[in-house]
UniProtKB/TrEMBL annotation:
Residues 2-223 form the NmrA-like domain. InterPro entries: Ergot_Alk_Oxidoreductase (IPR051604), NAD(P)-bd_dom_sf (IPR036291), NmrA-like (IPR008030). This is NAD(P)H-binding protein. It comes from the Bacteria. It comes from Flavobacterium rakeshii.
């Protein structure tokens, strides 16, 4: 099969490409960076260099493909993340429709069933809506859990304050995911040309935030590492002091509120509720310790 993968060779897209190539598929990888061309070719894929907001380029990249993996960059331009991500999704939708590709797998997120109250995930809700309006294309929305890799951003907090925390409690239940488990789900769906349009969750583990703190703490030799709930104001202050723009800090605080009240996790827990991935929290914790 001929498969086009967007997302360059980031944490998810690279693993998808490696899996597909290992299984004999003809893979092209879209990247906005010419510097990635050599690394993409080393994987055994064809490099397609161009902008994610260039509809004509993307249409050419998707034309002739049996399937496309569609993802929007997590941060476009530093500010106005929801708006910029939404606009990138519109461009992808235009290219999908014009290219004639019939099978698309989109990287989405838990909480994408909600139009608001979910921070940056609101853009993915809108993009799922754009895709649903395209006729004669079978979509799978891979709704991923809270990335384990987000905890790498908390390493300075652990080192400087000896705590882990956010604006939700220690008892908050989080569906968690490793990029490799997302890639496994996406790769499986991409080669399933007979699959109907669907929502599929990619979840490695389901744990409380207190369990996250305990597992990471044990792995780094800090078994008493506590999970500390912050107020919204404390979280915004901490993020802005770390250099994040105020609108970005508020966006992630909004996502924290959605995790705190359970609205982001609600659809997953009500419809599936079980982890289908292989990489459990304790295994990720050993990876975290190496970064720490």
């Amino acid at each position: 099969m001929k498969i086009t993968v967007t997302g360059s060779i980031g944490n998810v897209a690279k693993h998808i490409a490696e899996t597909l190539i290992a299984n004999g598929h003809d893979v092209s990888i879209v990247s906005s960076s010419a510097e990635r061309k050599q690394d993409i070719e080393k994987l055994g894929a064809k490099a397609l260099i161009g902008g994610i907001n260039d509809a004509a380029f993307l249409t050419d990249a998707f034309t002739g493909a049996d399937a496309v993996f569609a993802m929007t960059p997590p941060n476009l331009g530093g500010g106005n993340v929801v708006e910029n991500t939404t606009n990138a999704g519109k461009t992808l939708a235009e290219a999908i429709e014009k290219s004639g590709v019939k099978r698309v797998v989109m990287l989405s997120s838990i909480g994408a069933d909600k139009p608001s109250g979910n921070g940056p995930i609101a853009a993915l809700h809108r993009i799922e809506g754009f895709y649903n309006q395209i006729p004669n294309v079978k979509f799978t929305f891979v709704r991923a859990g809270f990335f384990y890799y987000n905890y790498f951003n908390d390493i300075p907090l652990i080192k400087n304050a000896g705590i882990l925390g956010s604006n939700y409690s220690a008892s908050t239940v989080l569906p968690l995911v490793h990029p490799k488990d997302i890639a496994a789900v996406a790769a499986e769906e991409l080669v399933n040309l007979n699959g109907e349009s669907s929502i599929r969750y990619a979840i490695s583990d389901v744990r409380t935030t207190q369990e996250v703190a305990k597992a990471l703490g044990n792995a780094i030799g800090k078994p008493e590492l506590p999970w500390v709930p912050f107020t919204d104001e404390q979280l915004i202050e901490g993020m802005t002091q770390a250099g994040l723009p105020a609108d970005i800090a508020e966006m992630y605080t909004d996502m924290g509120r959605g995790l705190s009240d359970g609205s982001i996790q609600e659809h997953f827990l009500a419809t599936t509720g079980t982890a289908n991935g292989k990489i459990k929290l304790e295994e990720f914790a050993t990876e975290f310790a190496l970064k720490f």
